[in-house]
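Researcher: Can you fold this with nicotinamide-adenine-dinucleotide in place?
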Amino acid sequence: MFIFKKWNIAALNSGVCFGPDQWSTDESTPLISSINPTTGESIARIKTGSLSDLEKLIQTAHTAFQLWRTVPAPKRGEVVRQIAEKVRQQKEELAQLITLEMGKPVQEALGEVQEVIDMAEFAVGQSRMLYGKTMHSERPAHRLYEQWHPLGVVGVITAFNFPMAVWAWNAFIAAICGNAVIWKPSSKVPLCAIAIQQICNEILHKNACPSVFTLFISADKKIAEQFVRDERISLVSFTGSTSVGEKVNTWVAERLGRCLLELGGNNAVIVDDSADDHLALPAVVFGAVGTSGQRCTTTRRVLVHEKKYDHFVSKLIQAYQSLKIGDPRQFDSHLGPLIDVSAVEAYRQAIEEIKKEGGNILYGGHALSGPGYFVEPTLARVEASCAIVQKETFVPILSIIKCQDFYEAVSIQNQTMYGLSSALFTQNLQHAEYFLSVLGSDCGIANINVGTSGAEIGAAFGGEKKTGGGREAGSDAWKAYMRRQTCTINWGQALPLSQGVKFDLHDHHR
Ligand code: NAD
């Protein structure tokens, strides 16, 4: 297949890369299969990493860091710019690979590759803007300022649902800051990671750079734990489920390391009585079924004002009837498959739970017979109090909840352990401002007349509560990848102490 030839995948078969032309040759480790979720077929087998590979990788990354930190930041940005250029040239093929291995519709996969490019270009600009502040010292003839240094080796652990973009959010910013990056992608999408690593290798080689970007693929949780626990990993940036993130947080805290967490979400859209359907309807449908409900920002709950309820729900059902489930390589498919058989099982169980708790399935509710892991996008009428509504089931089920008024909707929206993305559709200025005020949404992302899903990279991305509190991508998220140093320079002849403290040595001690 063309894609495989392009990235030399059949010949390569290794999931561990120490830098350009340095793929692991360890024969002892187990193979994993990359499965095409559209057909359920294995498309490649990949050698995973061993503990000794991991050790070698951490040492390699450390050595790379020693040199890379001395390269001027704008020069580091130039290397990232070249990676962006290569990714742009291969945008179509990379998107096809995402669709093949992860199953998201090709339109969305193209968007994901664009996000990689955007993130790289943002990082290039940022490489000239790693600003520190200068303060006025309270002491005469003193200069006081802050500067930022890289941390060291950054470990980036990513989820299956954005097999390229999440790495890019982290890796490009970490690299322009002067860190070396070890990537441990989800073992469900190894080929996407290998393809990106090949591009990095080519550019690193061309610029005679050290191994700034390296790769470690493993499905072994014990090895992953070891990676997280290793004191030489200065920052662990983890994107994945809240249950694994909680463990990662504990392991890193035990060694007083740094952790950046991007975890689960249970995002709601509030449809106010004044909402404009032309905006709200497509936003809710895209938010709920995009990536087959497998986005951290997927709309999982829609909270509809009772005055609007019947009308809006009938519109939703009509819209769902027009959705096309099918081969994600076709440009007109709205929904591709779920990632694997266990995701289909989670879907089935969630449907059962909704029914047990007295909910009504208004549309969908069935897994499709094979091949592949397809399910129907589902609309379920439920009460806000149902236990299932509090969970992040990573599938396309939208819970519809009727609310008496706007304020009740805000309160329900905040009644979940997650705090990632939130949205309000309204024409009411007071409601819009309330939603964005301290009394309103408690999420990291709060939108008015924009859905929950599909964030721009220019702003910081992340969420509160059990979403983990991390911020990545734009704004000042770069600071998480650097250490702050406060510097005081005395250019005078005396040694005044701060706060006016007096400490005079007797003459004979001088
Ligand atoms: P997951 O938690 O199963 O896996 C995430 C990563 O952690 C994978 O690389 C996996 O191999 C690794 N992992 C698994 N067990 C581990 C362990 N014991 N120690 C260390 N690493 C371990 O998540 P997933 O199913 O791949 O992705 C879906 C989840 O990710 C959802 O909850 C989704 O909301 C979340 N997510 C969050 C964001 C965000 O930015 N907030 C973005 C994408 C996905």
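Model: Folded with nicotinamide-adenine-dinucleotide in place. The pocket of nicotinamide-adenine-dinucleotide is lined by residues 157-162, 166, 184-187, 221, 224-225, 228, 239-241, 244, 247-248, 262-265, 296, 392, 394, 420, 467 (CB under 6 Å).
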